[in-house]
Amino acid sequence: MGDLGDLNPDHEPKMGKDLVAGRDKKLWGGRFAEKTESSVEAFTASIDVDRRLYRHDIAGSIAHARMLARQRIISARDGAKIVAGLRAIQREIERGVFAFSRADEDIHMNIERRLIEKIGAAGGKLHTARSRNDQVALDMRLYLREELRLITDLVDALKRELGRTAKRYLKVIMPGYTHLQRAQPVLFSHHLLAYVEMLERDRERLLDCLDRVNVMPLGSGALAGTTFPVDRGYVGRLLGFPRISRNSIDAVSDRDFLLEFVSVAAILFVHLSRLAEEMVLWSTREFDFIELPDSYCTGSSMMPQKKNPDVPELVRGKSGRIFGHLMTLLTVLKGLPLAYNRDLQEDKIPLFDTVETVKSSLEIIRDLVRELKVKPPNMLQAAQDGFLNATELADYLVGRGLSFRSAHTVAGRVVRYCLAQGRRIEELSLQELRRLSPKIERDVYGFLTAEAAVRRRRAAGGTAPENVRRRLKELGV
Ligand code: ARG
Fold first, then answer.
1. pTM for the full model?
2. 403 in active site
């Protein structure tokens, strides 16, 4: 994957002038006798990818500068100049006039260099008591914290849309499946609410992950901490962190919080891919349970009749990207010696692409759920065909005193008889049924309808309408 900016222009700070390559003076240039090779510059630069952190980098720097001034590590005057300079730089980036430079490697040094250009010597004081190692750890946490909140809201929105659709079609009966074979009648609403449960767990996992993202690492320096009398708690409060990190070595090398997030995203994508798959399946002529709106489908370049469900297919397919990103991150982190290593820079693309992919997929699936047309008669018809009431017959016989095992055998024989006759269970006469089991009475027919099958599953968590209605109420739908 190349520059993410090409893929997601909306999420990039505007690029004004072209990247300025090969500035001769590095911010860390003092020790070096030779200029960096341009190939090395190009290879190591991360600015194309990490410039999207500009807001977080600036927010972190402003908090750091305010703390430095408050602790009298720098003068109040310099502190104020730095804060004003950083705000002006943010406006430059947002107006698209900031000249990003690959020679300055990353977003941190691009901003610092510009600050020094703008306010002079005072700008050089910002990096007191700070390293890019704790700085980038802070930026990543600020970024992910913000995105986690947006993503949690999108998960909620999808839950809400599923809930609304469930309410609209509350009593619609469809076949429930196991092994993709028709199994027992269920409410379509109950089936949709299964996804709501999955998404609720995803939401809990996101919030749990947020708890560990929400830790403030600044003040760890390069790895060992800092000699300056910093007030880390103050920086944490300014930036809204409930906790600060406890070990400087851990704080600069920890990327567990990214692993956690991408793991949670991978699980979320397992769920989205299943929902997407059912949309694909249900909109086939073979199933014909739903119709996806034309505006969300695409045609074939060759076959004029085709209407393809590309959107859910792509959601299903994008799960592969997310699982890949998880593997990338695990592999980047595995076996790294403490503390910071440049390998960690490779966390950016997997994280950013996961965030963007999760957001766009949640949005479009939510819209699809809202727009899809449900075909209740087809669902009901499918639920009435294929002996989905065989369990009802067995349960009925248990009520007449048979053990479940014997009842199962009898119902199995009834199905075999029906298959040979090409008829449904409820089409057999009472006489025929009684020949297979004398325990059967006339009231059996009341047990054999799909409605009865659904209505009688009242045990907690079952598909009975009253259960579904209660759950919808709990969900506030
Ligand atoms: N661009 C770097 C990253 O993303 C920032 C930290 C660089 N630190 C260093 N010691 N070279 O990880």
1. 0.92
2. no
